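Handout, tutorial session.
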Amino acid sequence: GGTVCDDSFDGLAAAAICKKMNFTGGASWTSDESFEIQSSYEINLDDVDCDSGEWESCSFTEEANCAHSEDVFLSCGEKRGCEEGTEACSSGDQCIFSQWICDGTADCDDGSDEAYWRNCEDRWNAGTRVWISYLVMLVSGFIAVVA
């Protein structure tokens, strides 16, 4: 996993990432915060530029020309479509109990609860403020992963 640089990042990129993660939208984002854990990761994406609030409209580079002081911190809306204590599978049409995420058994029909991009061994969550710390390849592109 790694972080995302704020170069070219804007509200459309925030909305696209939040939607791809099955949140209701990109409420806000900033790059002026710092946590010690950031220095443990490389900056994996830079120049994230989206033409709409859909991840498929986004372009980016994997070679960063910035420092961790420019890492993106994203605050998304609420999770869509699932009751409290459950999470949506990537397909968006199935909810499973949150404790089933990264439990070693594929409970989502699409297997997304155990997908490699979840970084099951090293996930991090800071409440509703989500540090976009893990970005990995997922069929059609990159996706931000949250705990």
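The second record follows below. Compare its token runs with those of the first.
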Amino acid sequence: MKLSFPIFASSCLYGICSIHANPSTLRAELLGLVGNNPSGHLDTKIINEFSSKLKDFAATPGVDKSDILFAIGSSVFGVDIAPPKTANSDEEEETPVIVDFDYMKQFMKDVFLSYGCTEDQAEISSDVLIEADKRGIDSHGLGRLKPIYCDRIDKGILWANKPIEIIKETETTALVDGNLGLGLYIGPYCMRLAIEKAKKYGVGFVAVQRSTHYGIAGYYTSMAADAGCVGLSGTNARPSIAATFGVEPMLGTNPLCFGIPSDDGFPFVIDCATSVNQRGKIEKYAREGVDTPRGAVIDNEGIERTDTEGILRDMVLGKCALTPLGGAGDKMGGYKGYGWATTVELLCTAFQSGPFGDEICGIDRSTGEPKPMPLGHFFLAINIESLCSLETFKKNTGNLLRALRQSRKSPKGPGRIWTAGELENDARISRTAQGGMKVPKVLQQNMIDLRDQHPDLKEKYGKFPFE
């Protein structure tokens, strides 16, 4: 990220005045800025001051490159400052390429159109993906366009343009069949249906059968929150999680997601897998060429694995599994994550008489050939006005969340407390300020491959911003 002129100028001015400042003093001042200004990432003056001090801190000889202050600068204040490399450094950094959100969304929309999606399907599907990138959830945005959607369409296990059918419906409920179409389009359709029912009758619940990967669950609960509802959504996925005291992948990473309106300016949205880690994050580790943290994966021998490429290969073959929230065994409460993952699996299969386990693994274990993954989802919307005024509800929510953020901080922590949805809002502000999203080389290549595969894309996108 390039610093704006005001930040650059004030940084230089501060550097002249404090070039000999004590590094421990600078660090204390930086932590003080974070801790004493919970909304400082929205205040230009605080951002500028933080940037100036962080630049001086980075220039301090022998400063720790892994100091959390640099991560705070990047993820919270949108300031990418790091210690300078030494003269004999052999490290090669990838030059970041920032691409405008609108450009990237249009490209993804055009890709879906090239696969035969309708205008509406392509518009909505690309919006779900770009929203993940705006929120900083890189594992579920552009990074999934080719491997999860396009490649599966090419393999004939997902279809770009399939009708959505309502199998059974009442005033407050519906059972929907997605016919193995794009989950990115099926999901918004079903949450809109749940919201419509909630606005009429107070609550709406929609269960879905034979869908496919639907992107970030937080997109759907945000839809509900924006409509003045409490939203709940979940989906099952190909088997990845082992049961507590087991090693066989039996359950999906099965996110359980809530969205709750607040007067903060952004909703409370908790969107996370019921595993310690999820496959998308491990795929991100692979793109970055780093090891998977120990404790997130266990293999058939009960060994905790860290070799990212080997993990991705063996997960497909059923030779290793993710651990549930809390980890393997019961010492850290792994049975809790196991229980929540099972709950989501039940709500995605019991109403729908849907498959689970190997039936949705995406590969025929005997032949190694790809096969469809008919997933289940559920969507719940509760109309807040049916119980109290929306204004009162949002104020009550905001009061609690602000109390949490303003509570006493750990002296060993980053100096700030976040509530769910806040980091994603910070990412949106930061990435919008920097002009869009960073596109690493592996995703640049994905875009090039898709363009070269489709003549209409090649004609429209003769040269990408990074070429």
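Points raised in discussion: Residues 62 and 83 are 9 Å apart (CA to CA).
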